[in-house]
Amino acid sequence: MGIKVGVLGAGRIGKVHAKAISSTAGAELYAVSDAFPDAAQALADQYGARTAAIDEVSDDTNVDAVVICTPTDTHADLIEKFAHAGKAIFCEKPIDLSLERVKACLNTVEKLGATLMLGFNRRFDPHFKAVRDAIEEGRIGDVEMVQITSRDPGAPPPDYIQVSGGIFRDMTIHDFDMARYLLAEEIASVYATASVLVDPQIGKLGDYDSATIVLTTVSGKHCSISNSRRASYGYDQRIEVHGSRGAIAAENQRPVSIELATSEGYLKPPLHDFFMTRYTEAYAAEIAAFVDAIVNNRAPAPNGEDGLRALALAEAALKSVAERRAVGLDEI
Amino acid sequence: MGIKVGVLGAGRIGKVHAKAISSTAGAELYAVSDAFPDAAQALADQYGARTAAIDEVSDDTNVDAVVICTPTDTHADLIEKFAHAGKAIFCEKPIDLSLERVKACLNTVEKLGATLMLGFNRRFDPHFKAVRDAIEEGRIGDVEMVQITSRDPGAPPPDYIQVSGGIFRDMTIHDFDMARYLLAEEIASVYATASVLVDPQIGKLGDYDSATIVLTTVSGKHCSISNSRRASYGYDQRIEVHGSRGAIAAENQRPVSIELATSEGYLKPPLHDFFMTRYTEAYAAEIAAFVDAIVNNRAPAPNGEDGLRALALAEAALKSVAERRAVGLDEI
Amino acid sequence: MGIKVGVLGAGRIGKVHAKAISSTAGAELYAVSDAFPDAAQALADQYGARTAAIDEVSDDTNVDAVVICTPTDTHADLIEKFAHAGKAIFCEKPIDLSLERVKACLNTVEKLGATLMLGFNRRFDPHFKAVRDAIEEGRIGDVEMVQITSRDPGAPPPDYIQVSGGIFRDMTIHDFDMARYLLAEEIASVYATASVLVDPQIGKLGDYDSATIVLTTVSGKHCSISNSRRASYGYDQRIEVHGSRGAIAAENQRPVSIELATSEGYLKPPLHDFFMTRYTEAYAAEIAAFVDAIVNNRAPAPNGEDGLRALALAEAALKSVAERRAVGLDEI
Amino acid sequence: MGIKVGVLGAGRIGKVHAKAISSTAGAELYAVSDAFPDAAQALADQYGARTAAIDEVSDDTNVDAVVICTPTDTHADLIEKFAHAGKAIFCEKPIDLSLERVKACLNTVEKLGATLMLGFNRRFDPHFKAVRDAIEEGRIGDVEMVQITSRDPGAPPPDYIQVSGGIFRDMTIHDFDMARYLLAEEIASVYATASVLVDPQIGKLGDYDSATIVLTTVSGKHCSISNSRRASYGYDQRIEVHGSRGAIAAENQRPVSIELATSEGYLKPPLHDFFMTRYTEAYAAEIAAFVDAIVNNRAPAPNGEDGLRALALAEAALKSVAERRAVGLDEI
């Protein structure tokens, strides 16, 4: 029945991964851990798995791999624990909100030669992946400018905002990773401007809800990112890449593609309104890639280094907002 | 200043052609005739032309060509008159509602060697023309099936319906010509079904407001036409051609191409709501082609024969509705 | 674990349904039958089910329902057999190629009060279903004209053509059902024209590969259907409905929605090239509806009567091609 | 025949304006001036106008207005000359490359109470204007983020680059004006990053060919601009505005809107490849607005102040590239 996987954390994203594991050939959902035993039990039951305390999972020699879906402040400790236990590790982003802590953690991972994959699910979206494939096939020549539009249907609750590390570490971090994935060149400097336009409460918590970020690479390529915590028309997720011989774009996705024509005009339905329905295929492909990396002994991608670099970009963006200037990655 | 053109009829379509003539290099609007002297005067003044009675236009040796925009029941007589006068003739469709009268008229035109071009403006629409060009360049292989969707924003007034010759001779006639233009093969048989779904008044006048027509060529190619006298969303004018190696479509046109995204969805504005704004470019290109035919002594297209054949298709459609069967063109 | 379902026939469509059953809450793939034991075994193994002869399935009191995916000429017999056995039945279309046999079979089903659902999967496509929902919500007013474009990427092999009953019974039958589903009014007459434009071999077998069909309802609504066995650009499946206050369309579907811009123009990828990937969601929703009908004791839709009516339309179309006239359903 | 207009400069843009004047009701092309008499004569002949030296135009009491289409370094002097002569003035952007010179010139204009309109033609594009109209009608709520994509099909020749004032004053200046037009709020700071990715020759001339600019307003709204001197797919001119209750976008324009479907996919033709065909309607509407301002004694828009502010934004952008920081408009 393939490799045995434990899921740590039976919340929203834990459920997504549990389902993906169950549907992946060569993998088996073996155990579920959660601080709330009922949540663990419900999820385990759904797929015929057992529940187990985290220590039990790490001690269980049957377990090949874990998927870490617990709160952010536990990620680094759990990665180290399971690296010591010799398990392959998939961890939701970010590894930690502190760059220092992330570096220490990755040091441990490296020393132990552990397999660590980071949950930048958007790399596995078939539309975004097709954009990257087209670039690699040389269909647009040399990449020159990337535009990422990434807006949420609505803001998360204040409780979440408070522990999220702020918009750059929580939301833009996906776009930072996507920029790196598409530019295929390391970023030299970051400029960011950020405002509170959506909800004053977010401002009171010291965070922003609207941001525009410009990345510049060493060779002078640009990437601009547009973020908002409120898009009335749905989950706005688009990518455009302009190159020397053409351009390629991935369009927004909607649950049904119909068009209603009336005297008001031609109306298409709103976009997906939730990341889970928007990225259903991406979550499945991501877990399949993790399983494939373990089974075929391949280096997983995105890895811990990718997590570190995206977080460094978030740090630079924060510094840029404060200092109103482009911040070099060498300053972080 | 190029060839001198007289416009006969200063109504809606006369104005369109007068403007087109004035804007065409190598042509000059020379005279305007209309049963209503004020209408003629107003149009003539706008472009610095004179007014003249029809006989004056035909007798004036300065006049090279006429554009006939008078009511349908005068077309055949005027064509013959100006053919005798040696003028090049552009005539709005149809030549006459009676096939016999059309044939007699074309006989005269042929005997006199007169230049006669018919006003099937849609052949000159840049989008439809690009479809035809792509076919001729072999981009879709052999043409197999044509679909024409042609719907008016609203029905004409009862007065007009009564003298129009009915939906097939008035409205579908454009689609019949377009079918011939795109199939590039003569049509063997016609099947039509027609209903009164829009306005019972139209039914009382013995006409229909909704029709579906299927044309079949000798080699077995098909064309379907969908007509309605009411499209709440604007002037619906689309063409699709399916071939052995691909398909090509001309899309609907709208005055502005913007898209509004809200919680209701993504809304584009309605289409053009009037044939004059929809076919502005086509009317200009049509007159330019007429002038070009005269100046360069080329056979004009579409010509009288095209007018005859489209009318014969309308006759066949009427017979098909009555007899509920496919009617061969050899029966007409 | 819910109702126990046997799948009869482990071929292409049997696999699709086996997967759908396994993924449907409240259902369990219990047994697989196939004339080729290896095929049955392979499919059964994949989902932890057993293999069984058809008689064993009908005799097994654990079995609640069967899904018939065997060749067409066995459908009617199997429906009757399992109706007698008291099982709920889902059968792929068509029930039989003979109208008489279908009527006899449905008679038996009715007498025995058996649950029978027909495999018109397209009713469950989310895009087509959204079109129907919009109609029912009155968003386009009264339905007036339906246009169905339905083209296969390529023709089936000659062996299949020979037993398929011909293009109208094999391919158009889906469109006939869709027309009925969208018009929500019974069809009064059928006109069809059909040709061999794709492959002369198909003509030699007495079948057609290109067809245009026009349906007219009692109240004068129209539906046109365009069929081809060859669409180089993929599986072309579109629906448009024009009504008194608007129109609604379901667009084609493609695996990835990206757009490449170069000096050649703007290129989107081809459509799905296979009905299984195009209708993945529809197949899942169809089985879910079957399970729901059984569990909640609801009348299934589409049912045997729908299968009969679609087949009658195919008969009428064949007669129309032969007689070159509109054929009334009362003649069938 | 309406107001009499002199066109100064019979080059590319002079021809566009001459045609627009001739087609505008209430205006007449009266005289054409050019340093090359043949060029002036040819253009004058085309519309039945006279040729005249610049001094003759300014002295001619018949002349009501002038349209300045001469090289940039003559703009300010000509504006002052014709302001003194009491003529209404339309001037192509920019007034001058030096902010100081522009301010002095506008001072003179103001003192003399002259009518001065600036040639920011894009405000008159029907699609962009519809975006602005929708914003003013409140259809997207409060404007929050503007994205302008503005790419030329190809770079101008080195000779032009040298006198152009650089990419920000020559190309981005249109986008700066558009940003102000859409944000409806003055801009507080500018960040720009610029590179040479297209043509090293441009770099040798001290200019850039690729730029990304971020504008921030006092209230924290953002605008990002993406510029390139090379778009293989045509003249890429798009606008998106995201607001509190929705978003609105103006799409790219192409000469023909057809779609070719083959086994390669679905192909739409490239965009317009030239600003004159892309903005045909805008040029006509712009001159109509100028004539309307004169005839109806309205303040023209955009005016000299708009020209000054767009130029100041270009200065700020240049400073930002040099200093790698956001530059306040109060620093310029």
Describe this structure in words.
Chains A, B, C, D: Residues 128-248 form the GFO/IDH/MocA-like oxidoreductase domain. Chains A, B, C, D: It comes from Roseibium denhamense. Chains A, B, C, D: Keywords: Oxidoreductase. Chains A, B, C, D: Belongs to the Gfo/Idh/MocA family. Chains A, B, C, D: Residues 3-120 form the Gfo/Idh/MocA-like oxidoreductase N-terminal domain. The structure is a homotetramer of 332-residue chains. Chain A has 332 residues and is an alpha/beta fold. Chain A folds into two domains: 3-114, Rossmann fold (3-Layer(aba) Sandwich); 123-279 and 309-331, 2-Layer Sandwich (Dihydrodipicolinate Reductase, domain 2). The first copy, chain A, is 40% helix and 25% strand. The first copy, chain A, has helices spanning 12-23, 37-46, 54-59, 72-84, 99-112, 126-136, 158-163, 167-183, 200-204, 275-278, 280-295, 304-323; strands spanning 3-8, 27-33, 50-51, 65-68, 88-91, 116-118, 143-151, 187-195, 210-217, 222-228, 236-243, 247-250, 258-262, 265-268, 327-328. In chain A, the strands form three sheets. The first copy, chain A, has a seven-stranded mixed sheet. A six-stranded parallel sheet of chain A has the order 3-2-1-4-5-6, sandwiched between helices. A two-stranded antiparallel ribbon of chain A has the order 13-14. In chain A, strand 4 (65-68), helix 4 and strand 5 (88-91) form a beta-alpha-beta unit. The longest helix of chain A has 20 residues, at 304-323. The first copy, chain A, starts with a strand and ends with a strand. The model of chain A has no long low-confidence stretch (mean pLDDT 96). Chains in contact: A-B, A-C, A-D, B-C, B-D, C-D. At the B-C interface, strand 7, strand 8, strand 9 and strand 10 of B face strand 7, strand 8, strand 9 and strand 10 of C.
